[in-house]
Amino acid sequence: MTSLESAQRLQAQFLNLVSNPSEFRGELTVALADAEQISEVCGFAKKTLGFDYLVDISSVDNYGDDPRWTVVYELASLIHGCHLRLKTSVGEEKSELPTVTNIWKTADWHEREIYDMMGIRFRGHPDLRRILMWDGYPYFPLRKDFPLAGKPTELPDVAFTKPAPLEGGPFVTAAGGKDSVAREPRVRTTEI
Amino acid sequence: MQQNTEIGYNSKIEGEVVVTKLDSALNWFRKNSLWPMPMGLACCAIELMAAGASRFDIARFGSEVMRFSPRQSDLMIVAGTVTYKMAMAVRRIYDQMAEPKWVIAMGACASTGGMYRSYSVLQGVDNIVPVDVYVAGCPPRPEALLDALIKMQKKVETEPVFADLAIAAPFLKKS
Questions:
Q1: Cβ distance A113 to A127 under 8 Å?
Q2: Helix ranges restricted to H, A30-185
Q3: What phi and psi, each to the nearest 5 degrees, are found at residue A184?
Q4: CA distances in angstroms from A142 to B31, B82, B88, B154, listed in the order given
Q5: What is the pLDDT of residue A27?
Q6: Which of A117, A133, A172, A187 is best to mutate for the B interface (most B CBs within 10 A)?
Q7: Which residue of A80, B9, B64, B132 shows the fewest CB atoms closer than 10 Å?
Q8: Is the minimum CB–CB distance between B24 and chain A shorter than 8 Å?
Q9: ipTM, interface predicted TM-score of the complex
Q10: With an 8 Å Cβ cutoff, is B128 touching chain A?
Q11: What would the pLDDT profile of B119-160 be if each residue is shown by its tens digit?
C-alpha cells in the first residue's frame, strides 16, 4: 500500500474530517478538521493501514492567526515502507487535544516535549510533565511571543535563568552572499 | 666532548639534603598532580578525552587521573555547554571538591555561553564558579587544553600556600 492509497482509505473512512492529500517533494500531507478525533484517526491508521511507527510529533505556533497551534504527526509504515503526515489545528483558548499514547507508546515523550515547549496539553497522557526544562519553570520557551534571549526566573535550589545578552542581535546569516564575509552572521533587520 | 652541567639534585655534592622553601615544595607537589574532575557536558568532552589519550597524553603533566569523584579531584575542567538545568549540579560538584581547587573553562560555551545566546544556556560558567583559566576554541584542540594546564601549573606554582595556611590556622605562625 502506498502513501496515496493510505491517504485515500483514511479519507474514505473519515469522510468529512480528513482533507485531500497534498503533495510536497514526494511527501503526502492530510489535514484533520477536528483535533478531538485525532485518537480515532491514528488508531485506524495504525490498526487497519499498518502505520506501525510514529516518527515524530511536532507543533507549530501560528502566532497572530486563529487557530494558533498546528500539531503535526509523522506516520510511517515499516510494513508497506510508506510515510504520511497528519496535521491538525488547536485553538489557543483550548490548547488541548487527546493523547495518542494509547496507540503508540513512543508518543509519550513527543507529547511531553510539545507540552514543555509550547504549552499544549494532551488529554489522557499518563505522565504529562516537562521533559527538557525543570518542573516549576514558568514559561513555554518555543512560543513566538517568548523572547529569544529568555526571561529571568528563579527557583531556589533547582535552577535560575537570566536573559542572554543579544548585543543588538539576533545574529542572522544571509543566504546567497557571494563570499563568506557577506554570508557570516551579523545583526540584520528585516526589510519590509 | 660535550659536558653536561649538573642542574638537578646531586647527592654526591649536596649530601642527602635538599634545601628549598616550604611553599615551593608544596606547590611542586600540587602542580604536578592536578587531578581533574572531568565535567564533560558537550563536544568539548571529546577533545578532553583526546587530551587524555596516548597521542596528546595529559599524563605528561601529571593530570591523567580523571577522577569521577569530586572528593578526589583538584581541578574541574568544565568541557562543554552549561545549561541552566545543569548549572546547580556543576556548582554542587564544585562545592564538594576539597580545597585547594581550581577550574578550567574549556571552550567557548563554558567560557561565555558561546553560540548559544538562548533562554536555556548559562552565559559562562564563571557566573557560578570562579574560573582560573579560560580556553578559547569551539572546541579547543587538545594542545590548547594542555597549554591551559601548563598555565594552570604556573599559577599553582606561585600561590603562597604557607601564608594561606597561616591565615586559616594562626598557630602555624612564627612566634
A1: no
A2: 38-47, 107-118, 180-183
A3: -65, 155
A4: 46, 20, 23, 45
A5: 92
A6: A133
A7: B9
A8: no
A9: 0.81
A10: no
A11: 999 999 999 999 999 999 999 999 999 999 999 999 999 988
